[in-house]
Predict the structure.
Amino acid sequence: MKLSPINLNTSEMESRRSKRIADQIKNELGWLIEQKLNDPEKGFITLTRVKLSPDLKLASVYYSVLGDQIKRQQSSDALERAIHFLRRELGRKIKLKYLPELRFFYDDSLDYSAHISNIIKKIHNDKSNQ
């Protein structure tokens, strides 16, 4: 019996690799922020996802923060101050030919879903009171 080779196109393999590396970056950065980042203004940061550029040289890191707008700004400032530290420490944990540049973005999808949920609850309560 002759076995045929598995046909995976290059973009599919790159996509898998990119996702695997993005997951690894997310896990390592989450641990570094929680355990090693000693900035008192960092707050409670949760990484929600990491997206890599096709050439793997840029990592867009999305995060959420518990708290109000002031807390978000403090956390954002703390992350910006720590970019070089986090990238250096990430390089010690993950071995890649090129370590991606890090860019942090606040992920407002959780705020949006909470807002939609509140609207639905309000509509439901209004119908119950009629």
Remarks:
- The chain has one domain: 10-128.
